[in-house]
Amino acid sequence: MELKQVLLSRKSCRSYTEKKVEKEKLEAVITAGSLAPLGLPMDGKPHLTVVTDPAMLKTLNGLFGPEREVIYNAPALILVSCPSSAPGIPEMNSACVVEMMSLMATDLGLGNIYLYGVCAGVKQNPELLKALAIPEGYAPFSALALGYGSEGVAPCKEFVPTLTRNDI
Q1: What angle do CA 30, 18, 154 make, to 5 degrees?
Q2: Nearest 5 degrees, angle CA 66-CA 72-CA 26?
Q3: CA neighbours within 13 Å on the CB side: how many for 4?
Q4: 80 close to 33: Cβ distance less than 8 angstroms
Q5: Does residue 141 sit in helix, strand or coil?
Q6: Which CA distances in Å does 91 have to 9, 63, 86, 116?
């Protein structure tokens, strides 16, 4: 896809088919995340944890009870963990990584959604941090759920933001 088509096609996907994401596509999404612009990269590069195990996905999906779907039953989840260093830097770095991965996922025909709640749940659970092999000194700040969306990937109408100008 051309960049404009990717930008117009990217939307939050909250319903996935059961089709698994191919390894090559996951690797392409991860590579895109590694190209993200980072603030203070010397503080430690983000660590990506790819979750495709159905049992672990079910555990993560049920973090806040059975009535609330946290990852929308997506067949893959990528947690972005950063060292907790300078205030705001881990959040910004992880957001940049997720955005790059989201754009690549869209280009590859994968539905995706940027998530925060699952990270908050994992941070509060030492057993999950260990089971997910989150490195010592790191914490998950953002995540991307992805898979084949029930609605597919299609361009939306062009978005024109409201502009405030001070040069008049």
Answers
A1: 65
A2: 135
A3: 3
A4: yes
A5: strand
A6: 25, 21, 10, 10
Say which DSSP state 92 is in.
H
Residue 116 tokens, joined: 């925060």
Q: How far apart are CA 29 and CA 127, in angstroms?
A: 27
- What residues does 147 pair with on adjacent strands? 111
Rg (the chain; Cα; Å): 16
The Cα–Cα gap between 96 and 34 comes to 10
* CA neighbours closer than 13 Å in the CB half-sphere of residue 1: 19
* Residue corresponding to tokens 């996922």: 105
| β-pair partners for 138 | 83
- The reply to whether the predicted model has a pTM over 0.85 is yes
Q: Rounded distance, CA 79 to CA 57, Å? A: 12
Q: What is the pLDDT along the chain (168 residues), one digit of tens a residue?
A: 688 888 888 888 999 999 999 999 999 999 999 999 987 656 678 999 999 999 999 999 988 888 888 899 999 999 999 987 767 888 999 999 999 999 999 999 999 999 999 999 999 999 999 999 999 999 999 999 999 998 766 556 566 666 666 665
